[in-house]
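User: I'm putting together a small comparison set for a docking exercise, and I want a reference complex before I start. The sequence is below, and the ligand is CU-O-CU linkage. Could you produce the 3D structure with the ligand included, as structure tokens?
Assistant: Of course. I'll restate your input first, then give the structure tokens for the complex.
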Amino acid sequence: GRVRHYKFDVEYMIRKPDCLEHVVMGINGKFPGPTIRAQVGDTLDIALTNKLSTEGTVIHWHGIRQVGTPWADGTAAISQCAINPGETFHYRFKVDKAGTYFYHGHYGMQRAAGLYGSLIVDLPKGQKEPFHYDGQFNLLLSDLWHTSSHEQEVGLSSIPFRWIGEPQSLLINGRGQFNCSIAAKFINTSLPQCQLKGGEECAPQILHVEPKKTYRIRISSTTSLASLNLAISNHKLRVVEADGNYVEPFSVDDIDIYSGESYSVLLTADQDPTKNYWLSVGVRARKPAIPGQVLTALTLLNYQTISASVFPVSPPPVTPRWDDFDRSKAFTKKIIANIRTPQPPPPPYSHRRIVLLNTQNRVEGFTKWAINNVSLTLPATPYLGSFEFKLNNTFDRKPPPENFPSEYDIFNPPVNANATTGNGVYVFQLNEVVDVILQNANQLTGKGSEIHPWHLHGHDFWVLGYGEGKFKAGEDEKKFNLTHAPLRNTAVIFPYGWTALRFKADNPGVWAFHCHIEPHLHMGMGVIFAEAVHKVKNIPSQALACGLTANNGRHN
Ligand code: C2O
């Protein structure tokens, strides 16, 4: 592989991503940041300069496992110190697996502020994917608020608690249209038709296709909150990749995509080439802010035989009902490992099982999310440095609980809403096989249970299964999929359900495992895994120059 050098300057910029002016975070003057394109085996060397004047920053390379380079994972207070204003940090890591990935800020709520971009890893020249396509597109999906990420952050950590609410706009490759619709004349909406000429920052990027050809559409979601559904009218989508792993292909009319996930779908331009078609992305799993009005982002699939300015003759696809969770589950369960490509099956058994109960709680009057009653607050000294220098007083040395009381009723609000904050870690031995059962539960007050997409750093895990209600050891584990379990880096838990994952602790480092909904992580919805950290070698001193590790005078 070759070394690819990038220079990334992170800054705040004024842009019009949804036709209105906002302050967003960008890289090298771009929002979203530049797309990184590399080949398997390449080393990426990214010199990231913090051009923000008053806050730190880091960038996480979502889906890249960072084998041997845990210090380059880009998680503030976990793998490194936040990069100070004016400073440059060098991320240097290998991309070892082809796939559709993305990168994003992992400090405070900088992802919500717009700090993200795409990262695509191609197979080496001469190697073939297990499917054919003639061309490809890349769609990075995100959501946008008209309040700043700072305002959101303060609201979430205030008494009384202020929720961020639903996004104002959805963006496809950083483009959306607020308060107007490019399909207004086709749908039952109060929104006016957008008046766009095509050159605007907020004008949709059109997908130009040639009749009869097949295209690979890479789709990833870096939303702060929204669960999405994507559909293209009249066309089937054939799902072939999920989170950088080949899946057993299947065809659907639309796909669900949660924050932290990525997919590749194949589309064959086999419809009437004298027409154009809508591509629609709409919100699912949360009730729309305006009843009945699904927040949507649109663009066009243009058959190059005709002009892109010709309007489709039929309305855009309708996003499935937000609360049709049976439909969401049916889609999610279709994803299994590709049987024609060599993918390791999960180890047949695990050494250890950790059951993580997800609850909304209160800590001293603040509204939080907690895992087994502990709400995560990150320490001032990054964990990786604490382990490296054997510092004993930088985080809670007592590991968090591996289970929750068996009498806990997941179908009702917690009897005692009070949780504690903590920053202890789950410690794993090298090559330990770990099962994680993510258990969903009722919210803090009233009846209800939300969706949470959980993302693991440093690994792909096998998804062994999804179930309803409280996980029952013995009975439920008999139903685990041990033959075609898909490898992923993000998996969702459905309302009142559980999701079972397995991974092998074979990547020394300190890794975050958390809900990918940005405000939920901010409210403590995550845990920390420390894996054989004594094996980690060659941490650049730059990654450790803060907190109590700053004084250790290391030189490289
Ligand atoms: Cu994409 Cu820890 O996140």
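The chain has three domains: 3-122, 135-333, 352-552. The pocket of CU-O-CU linkage is lined by residues 60, 62, 104, 106, 260, 455, 457, 512, 514, 516 (CB under 6 Å).
User: Thanks, that's exactly what I needed.
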